[in-house]
Amino acid sequence: MDKKDTKKTLEVMDDKPDPGPLSESSELFSFGVIADIQYADLEDGYNFQGSRRRYYRHSLLHLQCAIEHWNKESSPPCCVLQLGDIIDGYNAQYKASEKSLELVLNTFQTLKVPVHHTWGNHEFYNFSRDYLTNSKLNTRFLEDQIARHPETMPSESYYAYHFVPFPKFRFILLDAYDMSVLGVDQSSPKFQQCLKILREHNPNTELNSPQGLSEPQFVQFNGGFSQEQLNWLNEVLTFSDRNQEKVVIIAKQSSAASAHQHHGEVSERPLRAASARRRVTDVTKTTTLSKEELQVPAFPHSVASLTNEVNRCLE
């Protein structure tokens, strides 16, 4: 876990040009966000590019500190969003994947509110998709089921669902590795399809390398959305449009269609993303949430003002 990713708490506010200081009367609800725990029983190391220090063993203390903070809040968050990479890929190398996952999940059990888990590349370095589907990292049981709208029910072929933490707010959790060579049998049609897409856009021998690519998101550690999942997302957004709901998109990666490089590092962007026909708030691992960015319309007819409060446990 990078120190900057320790913890975020987001308060959802009434529509105001300048919300000013938080007050109990203006706060509708809050939710916690944590990403890249990447626990491993190892000494500190660095990321793939060697540009960021990783606190593998110490990350568990960051998680414990975040949970302690959320549990002590006078107005507890309605839930916590865990945005993927809960344990590091090194665990697979040391055959410690299940032990490390159990340790982190046991820590999450001390949290007094529900946690919604997303899946990232490090989940798939450690486990197959079938394993994750049958594990405690599958929190689809927390989904909202809309009566008389079967089109808003996700397929079992990808890990995605939606839920309502507060009236007129719908959170949609997406499977950013629906289309990926990670976590699937290499003999499967989906693996072959994803490998074909990668090789069409990435001529490098090392498919994890973005060197020379005009579209650096086409790397092996990345993933994307299938057309089936995008069609489902469109149905849910259509329902929210008609019912004037504000929407928050949750994913391991940003759902923005464009790829970019930031400070010389490749941002993890989906191979395929939905067109931005509607405006939604995007809460992802790779998004830096500023006050200005969060004060955007969720839909043309309804403005959601979100104020970002980043509380660091350990400096």
TrEMBL record:
Name under which the protein is recorded: Manganese-dependent ADP-ribose/CDP-alcohol diphosphatase isoform X3
GO MF annotation, one: ADP-ribose diphosphatase activity
UniProt superkingdom: Eukaryota
Occurrences of domain Calcineurin-like phosphoesterase (ranges): 31-267
PANTHER family the UniProt entry points to: MANGANESE-DEPENDENT ADP-RIBOSE_CDP-ALCOHOL DIPHOSPHATASE, PTHR16509
Feature: compositional bias, Basic and acidic residues: 1-18, 262-271
Ranges where the record places region Disordered: 1-24, 259-286
Name of a matching Pfam family: Metallophos
